[in-house]
Each structure stands twice: as C-alpha cells, then as structure tokens.
Protein 1
Amino acid sequence: MTTIELRETRHLAVGDTLVSVSGGNYEVTKLARVGRGIRVHYLADDGTAGRFTAAPEAVSRVLSDGHDTPARHVA
C-alpha cells in the first residue's frame, strides 16, 4: 500500500517522490546545501526538470511504501 507522509527537507533523499497538493509527482534527483537551506532538484512526471530551495525544517509530502525508513540527512 502506498501512503503519503510528511517529511522535513533534511530527511529527503535522492529517489524520493514528492507529491503536490494537486496530485503531481516529482522525483528528487539531487540535494545540495545552499547557505542555511537545501536545494532540491527534481524531475516532473512529464520529464521537466526543476528545483526549489527550502529550509531544512520545511515539510514536504512524500510517497511512502508504508515501511519505516531510517532518517537520512543531507550533508
């Protein structure tokens, strides 16, 4: 069963799938520290690449397979 969980930006990892409120899916392709924030690079369902910068404690909606995964930190 696939569920949506809320995860802080600092716990995102390459390969995670972000879900927008409107239902779009975005695969995380790269994470990088930028000053005090984290830049998240992603690939949309239609193949369009994009990026955004968020605070480490900002919350994103992430697809989860229902299994507990250990916290992963961006270095």
Protein 2
Amino acid sequence: MTHDQMPDNMQELVTEIAKALVDDPKAVIVEAVDREESTVLRLRVAPGDVGKVIGKQGRTARSMRTILGAVSMKHHHRYTLDILEEHLDKQIPGE
C-alpha cells in the first residue's frame, strides 16, 4: 500500500464507523489534512450526534483513536482524529 492510498482508506474507515454510530449518517464528513509526518482526520457530524461519536466519558472517541494508533504503527505514518463540534447559528430572516 502506498502512502497516497493510506489517507483515503483511513478516511473511509473513520467515515464508516461514524456513520454506524450516528442518527444522521448523511451529515458525516471526514476531511484528511496532511501534515509533515502525520495526517489529521477531522470528523464532523450533525450537532445532535456529537455525543454519539464521543461516547460516555470519551470512550468511543478513544476507541477510534486507538484503532488509528494501531494503523499508524503498522504504516509508520501517524494518524490523529479531531472531532469538530460546530455550532450552527440560526439566522432569523430580516436581521
């Protein structure tokens, strides 16, 4: 497996795990950001699903990070997971 293929595969893996956990799988977005010696996977979900991907006391997020850590060791390329919580501002028409 080449380095060029790895981020896509890890991106797909995190996407599929997140989609299995949330109520709104269509809102799941995983963006891979390459850095010098690592790849940051940024996970975005619907605002109501953030707790589902984090889990009680962060257990679910920690489990996903553990999986990425194991893959990082095998492929000698570090992967990290950021779960982004975005506040959607509701704008009232006319303001």
Protein 3
Amino acid sequence: MTEKAEMVKEMIRQLGDDAVLYRDEDLLTYECDGLTVYRGMPIAVVFPSSTAEVSGVVKWLYENDIPFIPRGAGTGLSGGATPLGGEVIISLVRMKKLLHLDYDNREAVVQPGYINLALTNSITNKGFYYAPDPSSQSNCTIGGNVAENAGGAHCLKYGVTTNHVLGLEVVLHNGEVIDIGGVPDTPGYDLMGLLTGSEGTLGIVTAITVRILKNPEGKETAMAYFDTVEDASYAVSDIIAAGIVPAAIEMMDEIAIQGVERATKPAGHPEGSKAVLIMEVDGIAAGIEEQIKDMVSVCERHNVTEIKVAKNDRERGRWWANRKTAFGAMGAISPDYLVQDGVIPRSRLSEVLANIADISAESGLRIANVFHAGDGNLHPLILFDARNEGETDLALKVGSQTLEACTAAGGSITGEHGVGIEKKEDMRLVFTEREIDRQLNVRSVFNPNNMLNPDKQFPKPARCGEVKQAVGSGEAHQVVGQG
C-alpha cells in the first residue's frame, strides 16, 4: 500500500467516507485561498467535526511525518491556506456550532467554522453584536479571523480580533489539546495574543470564547466627497486630531468609486468624485448628532464638495454594502486584481497615497485605493490582466513596492490580511534577520518540525538546516488570479 493510500484509509477510518477528499478533481478547489496567484495541490482534504477528531487526525499525521494545514472558509488574501505541495488540509467548516451564550458576562463560545456575521445575527434580537467586521464577514469564519487577527471597518474604535478573544481551545502540532485564557487577566505569558494572528503555524484553534457587545443607543453615518485625495486625507487626520472617536472612517478613491458603482451594490456616488469618506459614529444617543456635525465641520475646512447623512438604517446598510463589496467590485473594471494591506501613520496618508500613485504611473498598472483610513490600514488594489505576458509578475512587484512605501513611512506590511505566502519575503522590510530568527525560535516551540502550515509567514532563514520538511514540498507557482 502506498503512503497516500495508507493515509487516506486511516483518515476514512477516523472520520468516515464523506469526510475525506483525495481524488485530484476533488482537490482542485483547495489549490489556493482568496489569493489566486499562487497555487499548490494538497494530497488530501479532511473534514473533522469535533475537537477530538481534529486531535486524532493531527496525532496520526504528526506520527507519520505528514505536514498539514488548517483551513477555514478560504477567504484569506495572503495564501495562508495555500498548499506548497504534499500537505493534508484540515478543513474546519463542519465545526460551525454556536456552543454557548452568556449575556450576563457578555461572552459567546463558537467553533472555528462559525461564520463571523452569523454570530451578530444570532444575538441581535437580544440587543448584542460581535464587533470585528471584516468585509468578508458574511463568508469568513471566526477561526480564520483568529488566525489572521482580522480587523474591519469598525476596528478604529473597537479594535481587531485579538481585542475580542477571551479564550481558546487549541490542538497542538502533536495532537495535544490545551485551553488558554478564559479568565480575565490570566497571569503568565499572553499565549492568546501569541496564537491570535499566528496564521495556523502554532496550533489549530477548535473553540473560541469571544466578547459580545451591547448594541449602541445611537448611530449616525455620513459620506463626504472631495475633489482631491489630499483633501480627504487631511480631513481624516484632523478628525482624529480634534478628539473625535468615530466608529469608522473609510476612504475610496476615484478608481475604487468607479468599480463599486459599476458592480452589484452601487450607492449613487457622484460621477467624477476623486475621493469619498464614509464616516460613522455610535454610542450613547445624546451627543451623536453633535459628533457628526463636528466631523462635517472638519471636512468643510478641507474643501468637501458634498456631504450626505444617512436618513435611515436602510440607506446606511446600502452604503456599507457598497464599501464592503469593493474588492470583488474591481472585477467590473479589471479582469484581475491583487490586494495589499499595508499600514501607515494617519498623518502620512497623503504622502503615501501620492507615492502609490507614482508607483502606478511608473508601472502602467492602475491602482484603486479603498481602505480603513481612520487607522491607516491601506488596501491598494492593483489591477492587471493575467492574459498579458508578464503582468502577473509585474502586479506582484508593484504590490511589494506599495509595502515598501508603507514601511518607509514608519508603517507595516499587513494590518489584517496576514503574511502567508505572499508577503513572507517582505517581512525583511520590517524585521532584521536576527529578529526573524528569534520569532522562528518561538515557532519551533509550538511547531518544532515545521509540519503545521509549513513555510508560511516567515522568509527562509539565512542559517541552514532550520527546518525539516516532512513531505517534499516545492515552491508554489504563479497562475492567473481571477478578479
């Protein structure tokens, strides 16, 4: 019996016939995640339904030196769930239960395959919601959010995933199950902080305790239009400098506006607008209108051309649908796109956006900007046509150049999408070799043989023999990335 056949037989024994995929035609779906310019083939995909099943699968794979990759809904944008070749994908989509609700203590316990927006939908009738709201929240899983430390439009006020995770159940590289957190101000090292954002390289999360919040008493949303990106950028900085704490400030530039207006969720943005800010404040009802007025006043000092305030929840929802479908909307104006997510200080928005415009002009590729302006988390969308020879490579090069522009301004290479395959070499823009080496030492404590989501998140170390590759894995190859 071949090694693969033996592995498949064991996985079927543990999980059942309907929980194991191993034929090539069935594995094609799992060649990549939301970043489609890199692809690789797993040797199998398995679908456990419980922590015990995850533990059993991992233990057997560990004992047989077969690497494995945890995967959520596959909406990741950095290749974090993409095989390099020879791994087993452990899909957690069947672990999709809401396990426990505690309204008194404002907590919920979910399995990793539970959809982000489903949590808010499950508790909204009780006046509660879950704050992290990535644009893919109707599809992405909370387990995947933990892996990438996902953010969202409202993280300006409420923070990213790590600020809402209270406890984790984790299967380690050898199948051992541990519980961390769960008690406020747990003494010792912040292992939850370490696991959150570790991109599946330190363990597989099988249950998550999260914080839930009461719905705010009041909420107001406004859109402000500008004739220049510079004016919009300075308005963002001055809103924060004025001591206003919005729930969200989002920006789209002219190319992004063109995309969303031609796609499925148009919002009626005025034709020819160079930039739009979507601004939202929430909290205690008293004073909400004053906050909006203060923000409008700041925008007026920066040559705003038009301001709209949402008349009702329906209009507010339409505006947010327009913004949150912006990535996919680029398919209306370009056959392919690549998205980055560098972070910069708010005060340098105008400067970095000007640098990105220069990169666009020099490369000949259009770049649409749609991003979380309030916390400086940029999302340059590089538009290209993979049918043209060399354009995919050029788009990848341009993506790295935008990250260089961010780090040169004192920023970082990712705010919420993670590093994965795509940006692991760009880690050298942020860290020295010595600093990368120290982080690899931490990884080796949890993942000593590099079998848990192997060769992701960090560049190849300068020193030799740092990791052992259990099953021969080649470099991922570049292919067409469809918008």
